[in-house]
Amino acid sequence: MQFIDLKSQYSSYKSAIDARMSAVMDHGHFIMGPEIAELESALAGYVGVKHCLTVASGTDSLEIALRALGIGPGDEVVTVPFTWISSAEVIGLVGARPVFVDIEPDSYNLNIDLLEKAVTPRTKAIMPVSLFGQMPDYDRINAIAARHGIPVIEDGAQSFGATRHDRRSCGVTAIGSTSFFPAKPLGCYGDGGALFTSDDALEEKMRAIRTHGGVKRHHHPLLGMNGRFDTLQAAVLLAKFPHFEWEVKERNRIGARYSEMLREVCTVPEVAPGNTHVYAQYTVRARNRDTVAAKLKEQGIPTAVYYPKCLHEQPVFAACGYKLADFPVSEQASREVLSLPMHPFLSASDQDRIVSALKMSLVS
Ligand SMILES: Cc1ncc(COP(=O)(O)O)c(C=O)c1O
After folding, report:
1. Dist. CA 2 → ligand 1 center (Å)
2. Residue 217 has what pLDDT?
């Protein structure tokens, strides 16, 4: 059994993926080939924004967003401590300071009631994460940000395809960012990511930063990077994208089926009213999480822990001055969470086996 079954996915779409990739091999435009613009146009339409900019990874996309907003030394950016390292790493990379706000226990997303207290005159952006595949209440977050005149960047690396009141992840804030890492809801076969915005000036800046800060060849007004998305990976996504809505539906169905079967025995992920969830991770909680994981492993069932340590506990952020117990909800989550196999090709029989093994291991 696979935690995320990319092999079944590839064999289902193989002919389209192979044809798209071999078209790139034939035309030979490996850097910024025509597939890049084709994909960007399809994804911007899907998300419902004016511009999509594909980039080399979901980490680069966040860094490009921060750079385009002019964030640097002396500035603060608010995010959560319970997320993948990239969310705060990029804040440090541009020379700013991450300011953490604790999460809600049910959705694992930023606790908006605590947000305003964290905003200071040095705060230059709020960067919430749509963790595990569902969005926080961006209307409330945007309203707080607007009161302080600062932009919101959605780290939607795990939530591409999710909706909140029918608006799609990555399309509800000044800038949306996602990742195409293979295990993500829309994954390619290498690294990749994308930025989304309807702001023409921001788009222009982000486009320049993506390619060495250049607006035209050999003219570099901005400090940029080599952050381009690979054309072959764009070809993979173009072949996979027509199946994405089906995959999102399956993720929803499989996630809901897990919750129905597990709600009685452990804490299951709660979908906030008005939300759809894409379950980049299907994550339950167990006090004896490590024992449960070991027992499932003995039965050939892979699990994963996202995340065993909060970011304020990571040595790289020691200089931020946080200590244990500063973010109790995040810290408790990091001790209890366990993610189960989750992908659109998970069969009902495999899911039944996972559920009964989990039930047994929770009681024994
Ligand atoms: C919440 C979050 N932010 C950012 C990233 C970074 O994406 P990438 O791995 O494409 O750089 C990830 C990916 O793991 C993520 O889960």
Report:
1. 21
2. 87
